[in-house]
Amino acid sequence: MIAAAIGNSHLAMRAFCMLNDLDRIFVNREFVYPEALPKAKYHRNDDQIEFYNAFFSAFEQSVPMSQELVDHARIEARTHGLSAIDACHVSATKISDAE
Question: From which domain of life does this come (predicted)?
Fold first, then answer.
């Protein structure tokens, strides 16, 4: 999502292809919004703000922050050497049964 919002690189084009795949359903995590949108707003990147707002409005499922998610993230972080936020992303994906 961030790669698609930021630029015209090869990575951004690959990200756009994934985001436009009609066979994909995107799952929101409460901590994705504060990870992306405030920085774009602070720097007044209107194109990024518009992109993020459209992206966040399209979620079909949301995984809220919960004790279950935190407990699962601790295990993921310890097992795989992940940062806290990356472990939360992995855990939210597993909790939602996303691929």
Answer: Bacteria
